[in-house]
Structures are given as structure tokens and as C-alpha cells.
């Protein structure tokens, strides 16, 4: 093969890969296209582009879902959980990253178990516990539940991250007779920015997308997260496409926009978390 | 040098939290699994009755089998697809970042929404997939994808793979990027063809990425119940009734908290055993390379 | 600037006085229901408005919770002592919640209790307590697209199996799909109606395990009858697999793609809103001339035992027992009154179903009156779905699964 032919066939191969990859986006495009079509159009013509920019579906969905309120709820819960998880997780990770002995091994084992446990295994007892503590249907309850779910991941994550921080920084402080708490607060904590950014991503994904916990723990519509609003609005019987698709778009749009804005950092952050 | 006690005190807040909202609930679950607790009223101790029911009825063993099948299909397809995409994109720097981002997009979405959308795509009459098949002249293949027990589980598995293949690809790409340059160069000087280079040089060095991908997707797949819950409710005739869905249905449909707790414990044991076995086996393979 | 005179002043004072009284004892009732949303309003929005107008001191907060979610969302609230004051319930829920002491006993001396249809009295009475005030009895029968039947020269909805098969032959010959027969709902209605009609054993005995389905000639016959329907071209079993009884099946019937569909009367209002859909609501065709009217005692109101607004809650549910008020709901739902002499909300298009009830072809849906345990329902849906996908299975194969489900609940 001459180099010119090779170059062209390489270009073609690349084009083909791009086409295949974009085909993977079809369901997302389908969702967007459907959301602007009336129910009649969808039934008559399942595949088809919107003939007009029909926004009636959206108006009804935003109204019916209590969308804005639930976005605020999701944001507030995300922020609280991130702060809690980052603080508790990084503090616990510091000794775990610096010492390998029986105590730290056991702690890490428990944390690993926490990572592998399906969330619904603990939901029944958590119910009972929350009931006794009066935490059902409260922001505090859902924040605690999500913190408990994300904490094992955070401990692991920070343990790996702190392990990569050179020890020399601490040595100097130790010679100055600083206690562990001071070293953590003044030396380790300021370095954790990138890890916390990635972790906040995991928390955001979970708080926005999980629907088991908020479905069970929250009962007043004013406290619903976005996903529960979608689920309740769409219902689980007699699903109407003209209600479903706009609700689906509204439910995923915030995260998709966030992703478009920060895609490179998000992908590398999430994978770094896994590879560590 | 002895650590001051306050050094380990730093882990205490997190430990308390994990103890109260993770370990204690699991202990309660174990306790509940020996009762006939129905979620309301009192619980009576019934010994091993719940566990006995699990082994004496086809449907629960069947749900374990469905779970295994589902997980196996998802993990195999997702790992292979991710590997193929990463292999290609690693060699195509011009389009790498764009494609990686596009593939990753579905992972940003919620199971609930993905389940709803794909339910529509698979719908028998006005569904997107059948309409597409008709359009390209393959109308003979169209069917109710989720209503046919032969295809339902695979249809859901495909949806699951679609969601997370970008994740797998991205992890493999990091693996490719971590291959030392001099090895790459040596391969090139030998005039090794792309595929040979992959098979003999890259694949062995990708072993850690394979381990991570397999374990992450296995645990992730075992854990989910949302897609079958939304898309088929376990049907048709239990063809997609995974163990996790069985647990959720016992909790929330038929008020069998005690039995659901027993199923949860069994599930937990399965997940932990699978993760440990995989980890040990794959790590050993890595070290024997 | 409003202009003042003695009269406005008097009104203002009266309003102020009323206001303070209302302030002093205004009560907010927390009510949940799986009706009252956009798709099944059941007249609740206007009834609640009327109730609040009649009782200015009571403010009703209605939350919609679907029937499936009811099982998920309400038990923790009941158990946790923050249950709604008034909840929509059905008998399976009453059995569990009432049995656990979480529902208020409404007693047997109330005016509405004495007016109950005698057939319902044993169902709603648990021991010597009553935990539910019934709202409606709703028919489950066969929706028939009369336009399609007329087009092949048939002018009456079939009520017997023979008439059904004849209609199917004619429809099939004309290229019209005769029948929706989803394993998840339509097939079970057909099987339960025909099985119970021909069964020697009482429904309650089958549900209690005293008689088995596997040895029951009636139910074996009903399953044979499904095979006969397939032979008669009524049902294409493979096409049913892709139909969800609660979504695509309904749209298929609405679009006129199928001529018949066993389903519940609560769909009548929705179907009636479809332009040009000429349909009738008929009994389920059976071996009897009358066909079977399968009555579902569906929904009622219950009050939580821990309600702090017991009086207001009782006032609320009694409001629904008044004939004129209940009629609004019955009309919206196309349902029958659970009370003696109560009118029905059935429109004319349901005349065939009404006739069947008069001719004595009524069977109570056994799950709704607790003759059969709730878990059996899902088992019947599953097993009939499996049967439609593979009709070579023996009747025993299908029916033994039913017996197993019953056994599991004993």
C-alpha cells in the first residue's frame, strides 16, 4: 500500500469510529427530539423529527413536577453531603494512608465491604433507625443516608490520594511538635482540592440520580429531589410519551450541561478515582 | 516512634458514622432475617424458615441464575467493547477526547430516565428500534423486545452496557497511556503489526486495567435493580427477575421484610464472595505475567 | 377607596368573627389517594372543593400516590406515627394495616354501614371491626370496539364463548386483530372468570388451600379454553408478549388496532374521550349465556389509628357516603355504588355489562374480597404470561404454581 492510500484509509477508519460513537448518542438525541413532539405525532410517527418547537410539554412538566423546587433541593443536598463526606473521609484517611497495621487493615476491610454492599440491603433497617430518631421525611435524614452511602468511597479515595503526598512536608511539622490534628488541618487538608473536586462529582451523580433512598425517606413533595419528581410525575402505569420525554430531559439536563462544560476533567477525575 | 493515640482518633468520626449507618443496619438485617417481620406490627422469631424457603423454591434459585446470566453478559460485552474502543482511540489521538466524552455521556444519566427511554425504544408497536428496523428493510426482525423472554434480559443488558461502556473505555485508555514509551517504541522497531503489538505487548500490560474494569462492572451490575424494575418489573414470566429486584419486591410489594432481609444477606454474601474471588484470581494472573 | 356603610361594616365584623373562629379550630387533613391525578381524577378535585366549602374549618391536602408506590411509601409513615389522616385503601392493604392495629375502627353503627350492599358486608368487616368505608364497586369486563364488529356484520357484543369464537373468525377473515389478551391482565381476567364460574370449589377454599387449582376441573377447562381461543384465531399469543397491559395495550385498543380487550371499567372515561371510537363494555364471554360480570370492590377510605384529627377525618369520609357526592365519583369512574339503592355511574355503552349483572352472572374478584391472597395475583400474571409464550405447557404446570403461591402465604 502506498503511503497516500494508507493515510486516506486511516482517515476513513477514524471517520467510521466517529460515526459509530455518535450512533451511541442516538437514545439521547431521541429523547430530545421526542420531547418537542405532541402525543399524537409520536403515536402516528414513532421516528420523526419535531415539526415545530412545541414547548407545551415542557410548560406542563415544569409545573407538574415542581421542577425548580426539586432542583434547589438536589443542589442543597449535594452540597451538604459533599462537605460532610469530604471532611469525615479525608480525616479518617490520613492515618490509614500513613500506617499499615492491624487496626488500619480492619478499617479498610470494613470500608471495602461498604463499597460492595448494595444500597437496598441496608435500607430496611435504616428506615427503622430513622423512624426511631425522627429523621424520616427530613433533609437531615436524606443527607445522613447519602453521606453513609458515599463515605466508604471517600475514605478509599482519600487514602490513595494522601498516600501519594510526600511525607517530608509532615516531618518538619512533627519536629515542631505539632499534633496529628494540626498536621491534618494545616498541611494535608489544603492539598486535597483535586481529590475533593472528583469526589464531589460522585456525590453529585448519586444525589441526582439515585431514586431508592429519597423515594422511601422523603414523603412531602416540597422536599423531593429531581429524580423523585420525575418518577412521581411520570408515574409507573399508563406512561404518556408527551409527559415522559420532557420530564426525562429536565431530569438529566443539569448533569448533561455540567458534563459538557467540564467533560475532560470529569472523565479523567472519575477514572482516576477508579484506577487509584 | 509510637503514634500518639490522637493520631488514630482522626478516623473515629467516620467510623462512628459507618458503624451507625452501615454496620448496625447490617446487623439488624441479619436479626430481621430470622423473623416474619412485615414492616408493620411486631416481628416473631421464625428460625431458619426464610432461608429454607429460599432453597426450597425454584423461583429464588432461578433469580440467582438470572442475576448470574445478566452480570456475565454485561461484564463480558462491556469489557470487550471498552477494550476495542480504547484500542482504536489510543491510536487515533485526533478524535480521542471527543469520542471518549461522547461515550461517557450516558453514565451521567439516571437509571430511571435511561430505563424509561429504552422502554420506549424497545416498545413493540410505536417503538424506535422496530421503526428503525422497518426503515432499513429488516422489519422481519421487529418484535416486542422486552415482552419476549428470549430477548428481554439481553435487551436490558444492552441498555446497561450502553450506559457504562464509556466508563470502561476511559479506564482502558488510562491503561494504554500508562504503557511505558520504550516498550511501545521497541514494538514499532520490530515492525510488529498493530494487532500483534496489541496481543503480545499491550494486553499483558493492561492486566491491572482489566482487573479494575471487571470488578467494578461486576459489583455495579450485581447491585442494580433499577433497570429491570422500570423496564419489565421482572417479567415476562420472571425472565428478568434478578435477585436484587426480588428483594425490592419483597420489601415494597408484599411486606415480607423478614424474608427480604434474608435475601439481602444472601445477596451480600454472593457479592462479597464474587468480588474476593475475582480479585484474587485476576491479581494472581497479573503477577504471573 | 371602598365606601363604608353600616352593612359592609357588619359584614366585615362577621367575616372577622368567622375568621377568628376558623383560626381557632382550623384543621388540616392530610389525605392520600391513587386517584385524583390528571389521568384518573375520579372527581376528587371538585369533591374536595365542595367539601371545603361546606366545612370552612377543614382544609384538605390531597397527595397523589400511585397504587404501586402506596406499598412503598405508606408503611413507614404508618409505623412511624406520621401517617396521613385519611388514606385510600383496598382490602389487601386493610388486611395488613388493619391487622397490625394501624387503622382506626370505623365501627358498625354508622349510617353508611347500615346502607352497605349486603354482599359487601362480610368483606369490609374484619372480625367485629370495620377499617374501610367503600367508595365504589367497579366492573371488569370485555371492551368491544363496535365499529369494527359492525364492519364484519356483527351488531352485538359476544357474551358466550361460541359467539366470541364466531366473531373472531369473522374479524380475522377481514384482517382485523380480534383480541388483546395480555398475560399481565386480560388473560387472568378471562381465566379467573371462566374458572370460577365452572369451579366446584368455592373461591375461598381455593385461596385457603383447602382445594387445589391443579385438580380443579373448572380452571383446567379455562386454560383449555385459552387454547381454543388461539385455535379460533381470537388470540395471537406471541403478539401479546410485547403488550404492556397498562400502557401499550390501552393505546392499541384506543387506536382501533384490536377489536376486543378484557380490562377494567375505570378506562371508560379515557376511552370515551377518543374521537370516533365506538365501543361497548360487555361481560367476559363464558360458558353461560349471560357471560361473567367480574366485579371488583376496588377502593375505599381508611383513617389512620393515630390520626389527631379523628372527627374531621370521619366528617370527610362521611361526606363521600352521601349519595349526591358519591355520584360525582361514580360518574367519573364509571363505577357502581357500594350502597343499597345507590345509583351507578355506568354510561349507556356499558349496558351489556349491566344486563349481565342483572342476569346473575356476577362474580366478585377474589383478591379484592380477600378470598385469595395478594401474592397469588402476581403469580397468576406471571404464569399465564409464560403459558401464552409456550402453550405446550400442561394445565397442571400452570396451576401448580398457583397452589404453590397459596401455600407460601399459609
Description of the molecule:
The complex is a heterotrimer of chains A (276), B (289) and C (410). Chain A has helices spanning 3-23, 26-35, 39-44, 56-65, 67-98, 102-116, 123-133, 139-163, 168-175, 180-188, 193-209, 212-217, 226-234, 241-275. Chain A is mainly alpha-helical. Chain A is flat and about 75 Å long. Chain A starts with a helix and ends with a helix. The model of chain A has no long low-confidence stretch (mean pLDDT 86). The longest helix of chain B is centred in the N-terminal third of the chain and has 33 residues, at 58-90. By secondary structure, chain B is mainly α. Chain B has helices at residues 5-9, 12-32, 49-56, 58-90, 93-104, 111-122, 128-135, 152-177, 181-189, 194-205, 207-223, 226-231, 243-252, 257-288. Helices cover 47% and strands 15% of the residues of chain C. In chain C, strands 1, 2, 3, 6, 7, 8, 9, 10 and 11 form a nine-stranded mixed β-sheet that branches. Chain C has a two-stranded antiparallel sheet with strand order 4-5. The N and C termini of chain C lie far apart (75 Å). With 410 residues, chain C is of the alpha/beta class. In chain C, strand 1, helix 2 and strand 2 (58-64) form a beta-alpha-beta unit. Chains in contact: A-B, A-C, B-C. At the A-B interface, helix 1, helix 2, helix 5, helix 6 and helix 7 of A face helix 1, helix 2, helix 4, helix 5 and helix 6 of B.
Largest interface comes to: A-B, 88 and 91 residues
Give the radius of gyration of chain B: 23 Å
Q: Low-confidence parts of chain C, pLDDT < 50 over ≥5 residues?
A: 1-24
Helix and strand composition category of chain C: alpha/beta
Q: How many helices of chain C in DSSP terms?
A: 19
Topology, number of strands of chain B: 0
Helix content of chain C: 40-55%
Strand percentage of chain C lies at 15-25%
Characterize the overall form of chain B. globular
Count of extended strands of chain C: 11
Low-confidence stretches of chain B: none
Termini distance of chain B?
A: 39 Å
Element-by-element helix/strand order of chain C: HEHEHEHHHEEEHHEHHHHHEHEEHHHEHH
Distance between the termini of chain C: 75 Å
This entry's quaternary arrangement is heterotrimer
Largest sheet of chain B: none
Q: Outline of chain C, from the CA principal axes?
A: globular
| Mean pLDDT level of chain B | 87
Tell me the major beta sheet of chain C. 9 strands, mixed
Topology pattern of chain B, helix = H, strand = E: HHHHHHHHHHHHHH
